[in-house]
């Protein structure tokens, strides 16, 4: 019988993946906050099969054990769960399509919004928060209805310390260098003390008011020297009608007093953790607004305008 203790940084029995020198240093596996250490005895044949799988996939021991257990027990892993689509948001479909309880059933990490586009949602370590346009931050109960959410069970595949992040574009470039492919989805967690961060919070809008129009009068806040976490996703451009293409991150301060959709930032050093996903589960709303929306337009330009930094905007002082 052999013993398996997950969260070994790398399996010492295995050769390093070829041509993956950088990954060697980067793949310091760190457990996500909801992980537990498991110690159990398994037959040696099972361990051999596990090692064969690890050679084939390049997974570390903890990832391989987690994946095998998740597959056997039908627990979603390396999959992203989503309700509604970016295309529907662009068209102003802000009606209830799910609840926070349902979202939390599928993940402990994610982002979204609330009915009427009323605030920005952040799901971190299993707790859902709402940043309001009035600058408030509140924990949201499971009964809260919501029109659009993306969530996953966050498992760290790769983590890296990035120094001297000069801007949002700079952060995106660093994250892109960490991803194995432009064509896979990824969940992203970034922890830092930010020298500067600029976030927006969407204001309540009527159903059918387009996202571009709704976010043209958003609340904006800037913070300096603030510790916190960025929570979000990378979506390939080809999937732009489903989710916001590129990087989409929401901020949550460590003191749980501030949050919002990230527009700009600077940081001396950040810890970036990536969870790559090759499985997307999309639930389509069956409310009237979704059923009757015209979702055939390419939403890329509208999303870039609605979700990016606005030229010439005058941000409010968020303290
Ligand atoms: Zn957002």
Describe the overall structure:
- The chain folds into 2 domains: 2-73, no CATH class; 81-307, 2-Layer Sandwich (60s Ribosomal Protein L30, Chain: A).
- The protein is globular.
- It has helices at residues 21-26, 44-57, 61-73, 86-90, 100-106, 168-178, 211-214, 288-292, 300-307; strands at residues 2-4, 40-42, 79-83, 98-99, 109-113, 120-124, 127-131, 137-139, 145-146, 149-152, 158-165, 185-201, 219-235, 246-253, 259-277, 279-283.
- The strands form 4 sheets. Strands 8-7-6-5-10-3-16 form a 7-stranded mixed sheet, with helices on one face. Strands 11, 12, 13, 14 and 15 form a 5-stranded antiparallel sheet that branches. It has a two-stranded antiparallel ribbon with strand order 1-2.
- The protein has 319 residues and is α+β, with helices and mostly antiparallel strands.
- The protein has 9 helices and 16 strands.
- Zinc ion binds at residues 111, 120, 248, 250, 261.
């Amino acid at each position: 019988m052999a013993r398996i203790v997950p969260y070994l940084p790398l399996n010492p029995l295995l050769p390093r993946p070829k041509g993956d020198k950088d990954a060697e240093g980067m793949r310091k596996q760190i457990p996500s906050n909801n992980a537990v250490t498991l110690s159990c005895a398994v037959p040696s044949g099972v361990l051999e099969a596990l090692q064969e799988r690890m050679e084939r996939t390049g997974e570390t021991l903890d990832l391989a054990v987690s994946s095998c257990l998740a597959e056997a027990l039908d627990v979603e892993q390396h999959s992203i769960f989503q309700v509604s689509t970016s295309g529907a948001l662009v068209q102003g479909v802000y009606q209830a399509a799910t609840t926070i309880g349902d979202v939390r059933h599928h993940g402990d990490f994610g982002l979204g919004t609330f009915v009427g586009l009323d605030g920005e949602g952040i799901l971190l370590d299993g707790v859902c928060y709402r940043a309001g346009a009035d600058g408030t931050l509140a924990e949201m109960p499971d009964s809260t209805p919501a029109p659009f959410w993306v969530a996953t069970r966050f498992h760290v595949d790769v983590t890296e310390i990035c120094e001297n992040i000069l801007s949002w574009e700079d952060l995106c470039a660093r994250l892109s260098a960490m991803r194995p492919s432009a064509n896979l989805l990824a969940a992203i967690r970034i922890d830092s003390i930010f020298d500067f961060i600029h976030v927006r919070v969407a204001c309540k809008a009527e159903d059918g008011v387009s996202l571009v129009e709704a976010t043209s009068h958003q609340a904006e806040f800037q913070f300096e020297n603030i510790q916190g976490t960025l929570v979000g996703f990378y979506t390939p451009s080809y999937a732009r009608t489903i989710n916001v293409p590129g990087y989409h991150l929401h901020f949550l301060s460590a003191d749980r007093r501030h949050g919002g959709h990230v527009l700009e930032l600077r940081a001396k050093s950040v810890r970036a953790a990536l969870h790559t996903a090759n499985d997307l589960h999309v639930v389509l709303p069956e409310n009237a607004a979704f059923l009757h929306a015209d979702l055939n337009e390419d939403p890329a330009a509208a999303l870039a305008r609605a979700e990016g930094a606005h030229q010439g905007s005058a941000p409010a002082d968020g303290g």
